[in-house]
Protein: PadR family transcriptional regulator
Organism: Flavobacterium sedimenticola
Amino acid sequence: MNIENTKAQMRKGVLEFCILSVLKEKDAYTSEILDTLKNAKLLVVEGTVYPLLTRLKNDGLLNYRWEESTSGPPRKYYGLTELGKTFLTELSGTWTELSDAVNIITNQK
């Protein structure tokens, strides 16, 4: 059994929830999203995030806008749609139930 593969699968499973949560407070561009994930010790590469952002946009959970940058080309800022906010609220409830259940199981002696 490859522990790194299992750990990667666990991270993938929560990545969508984490990205939506990052965008809950304010719109952000991809580098900001990646930095926030990295600061939380959730290491993700750009090649994983870009397709996920596109899928979330295509699903109607995110929208985006282009904004000029003082330090390079324009940046694409992502934000939650109303559907995205509702979806995130549902995921938050599910996450709480799931993490509570996992904690009960893994903390049993």
Summary: Helices lie at 3-22, 30-39, 46-58, 82-106. The first helix runs from residue 3 to 22.
